Amino acid sequence: DNHPPVFDKSKVELHVHLDGAIKPETILYYGQRRGIPLPANTVEKLQDIIGMDKPLSLPEFLAKFDYYIPAIVGDWEAI
């Protein structure tokens, strides 16, 4: 077999979920534009609420999406 091995290389993250990769600026913009209330009105405050600086349980992690998904869901321009 003359093919080089592929699975002996360092692993990298191959994808990032789109809903977790949206900038706070974008969330604020579309929340305000669509009249969706958000838990903060500045990038810094929103980042403090939706960001993570330590591992969370799955329910704690998923709860963060409840804060901002309504501002972007169904709006392909936002995504």
Automatic annotation (TrEMBL):
Keyword set, alphabetical order: Hydrolase, Metal-binding, Zinc
Q: What EC number(s) does the entry state?
A: 3.5.4.4
Which residue ranges does UniProt annotate as crossing the membrane? none
Q: Which cofactor does it need?
A: Zn(2+)
* InterPro entries assigned: A_deaminase_dom (IPR001365), Ado/ade_deaminase (IPR006330), Metal_Hydrolase (IPR032466)
Output the Pfam families linked to this UniProt entry. A_deaminase (PF00962)
Report the GO molecular function annotations.
Answer: adenosine deaminase activity; metal ion binding
> Which N-terminal stretch is annotated as signal sequence?
none
Q: Ranges for the Adenosine deaminase domain?
A: 11-78
Record-linked SUPFAM superfamilies = Metallo-dependent hydrolases
By sequence similarity, the record places it as follows: Belongs to the metallo-dependent hydrolases superfamily. Adenosine and AMP deaminases family.
Q: What is this protein called?
A: adenosine deaminase
What organism, scientifically named, is this protein from?
Monodelphis domestica (Gray short-tailed opossum)
